[in-house]
Task: structure prediction
Amino acid sequence: MAVAASGYLRISATDVDAWMDFGTGVLGLMDAAREDADGARFLRMDDHPFRFMIEPGDADRLLATGLEFPTESDWLQAVASVKSAGHAIEVGSAHEAARRCVSAFATAEDPCGNTVELYWGRHLDYVPLASPTGVREFVTTYRQTGDMGFGHLVLPAPDIDAATTFYTELLGFGVSDILHPPGMGPMRIHFMHANNPRQHSLALFSGEHPLGVVHMMVEVGSMDEVGLAMDRAKAADVHFLATLGRHVNDNMCSIYILAPGGIAVEYGYDGLLIDPETHVATVSDEGDLWGHEYNFPGVN
Ligand SMILES: [Fe+2]
Result:
């Protein structure tokens, strides 16, 4: 059975307080008011106990992506698939599972060295979102099918074909779109959906990235809430990696801003919903309908 969603991220931050200020004050996420013995802080966006675990570290980078499976038997099958394909995979301790608020998880690396944590059985506490900036809701669920995960992320994958095989053949992702970004030669981005209507929950970029993630995305329920986030980011003097624009493949209307330490966060509205059972993969030669003018820090 296929992976259900990209459920959570673990992020290493050299300045956890700055990341929390950004997460709450700019993104509008809720401080989950949990702190663990290792100094991690937690951000929530819905009735999950957290979606982002911010851990103190020597570097700013993505540590791991939590991938959700619907049941214990689906999870066991996925773990067995990864193992039988020759990849190392290790079941986490009960303590580490409790820290993630999951019933069980197992850690593996994809063929490009990105760490994934396969889990099932998230423990929900149903505390409603109380966004410190008044965000009404983050788009994380679909009423017919349940969890759609926190949003999406793009991972670096220089060996993109091996990584795509890992996510599709072993974990059950489906390819949604293959993008040839204009002006980037042979580079490709493979967008993949989990077994939920979000057009992509995870994508692979055929290059390196020093932070272990090309960008992560969260979605809000109206264009005004994207605009309000733009205003908050400007007021907080946050770097805009891209102006407002609309993507072609998932229709997301979004901005890109940099979190403390440099991870790019896409903040969007109006993402396309698909039927994961019947979706036919597209091949795109354009990334945007309009906008998304990039401004990489230090590059003129
Ligand atoms: Fe994106």
About this structure: The longest helix spans residues 72-84. The chain has a mean pLDDT of 96. The two ends are 47 Å apart (CA to CA).
